[in-house]
Amino acid sequence: MIKQKIFISAYACEPGLGSEIGVGWHWVLEMSKYFELWVLTRRSNQHTIEPWIAEHPEYSHIHFLYFDLPKWVRFWKKGLRGVRTYYNIWQWMTNGIVRRTMQENDICIFHHLTYGNVLWKVSSYGQKQFFIWGPAGGVETIPEEYSRLYPRKMQLVEKLRRMVAANLKWNSGFKRRCLNADLILCKTDILRQHIPARYRDKAILFTDVAVDNLLEASAITESAPEKRVEFITVGRLDPWRGFDLAIEAFAKAAEKNSHIHLTIIGKGADKERLQALIAERKLTDKVTMAGAVSMERYQEYMRNCDVVVNASLKEGAVTVSFDSMAMGKPLICIDTTGYTRYFSPEYAEIIQRSDRKSTIQALAESMVKLTDAHTRYEMGKKAQLAGNQFTWENRGKEIEAVISKVLKERNMA
């Protein structure tokens, strides 16, 4: 059977990593089972992609293309600093590669996969073909009640984001991409509601993450009642990810049960504020900031913890939330109208975002609830069982079904 050809723009795509880079990689692997793929990514990813493909020849049929800006152009970019500007220049400079590759190989389907931000550029040639966009987000905002406690720079950033979201209907680039798209995969219902009504029939909810069934989970056993309860929260230390909420909730929970501990894994700009908050709440002996860790060390932390906390106010730390399923750990999270729809009260405490005080109180109450060993045991078993439904293999089947349905409707399959 001849596979349908698809060109994928995957700026972030690399094996062995989490977050958006890992998402791009897993999507490519799964889609390659059903479609013939040409994948454009950064040249800096080549040194890990090619050795991995050499070790997994069953994926050698994927056509990878690489491009990076010349060194003299990108001297100012370091890590995530300047990533938006670099990314938008990269999209502009790779447009010729997209056009040439699609024309030479008779490809008529273009999928813009990563970065999944609807405010950022998409290949001008690609979006005029059969255009699949996402999964994407980028218009979710943080209320001022929360952001007023952020460092001044981040207060201004969040204020700007609220202004951009409020005026999205006037954003010509966004409207053009909505017009051109044949399928819009929305990470959250918040984004779906921002899609202009006349294009909303092309938009569906579709999360970008799944359970990694390659994770080595330890057997789920009921902890001894006297065991110290280990909470863990993971992600880049950005203010909107809610680490301050997790710390304040943990402080309240520790008043009810002192035999608990919280580990924060990640690095980022909010580190000093979080350290000050830990000291202010007199939690230095109960909260550990572990910094950035290797994937192996991260998995070890996950195996040894009892509860995973994701207090992100937007779609953040989603990978660790799905990893909690694979590891059989109960999850405490804030409803973002996106990935949280895959979680059930049977194995997760899903907090509705309310005013800041009420949200912290709800997080604290969930932490106290999960200090009970039997409750954790029962929820952990159900989490791991549910995780079998949300594996990357199953996500791949969903991706194929969604794309094939739209292609058939357009008489392209």
Description:
With 413 residues, this protein is α/β, with parallel strands linked by helices. It has 15 helices and 13 strands. The strands form two sheets. A seven-stranded parallel sheet has the order 3-2-1-4-5-6-7, with helices on both faces. The protein is globular and about 65 Å long. The model has no long low-confidence stretch (mean pLDDT 92).
SSE order and pairing:
Blueprint: E1 4-10, H1 19-31, E2 35-42, H2 46-55, E3 63-67, H3 83-93, H4 95-104, E4 109-114, E5 130-136, H5 144-147, H6 152-166, H7 172-180, E6 183-186, H8 189-194, E7 203-205, E8 229-234, H9 243-256, E9 260-265, H10 271-280, E10 287-291, H11 295-304, E11 307-310, H12 318-327, E12 331-334, E13 348-351, H13 356-369, H14 373-387, H15 392-409
Parallel strand pairs: 1-2, 1-4, 2-3, 4-5, 5-6, 6-7, 8-9, 8-11, 9-10, 11-12, 12-13
List keywords for this structure.
413 residues, alpha/beta, 6-stranded parallel sheet, Rossmann fold, 41% helix, 2 domains
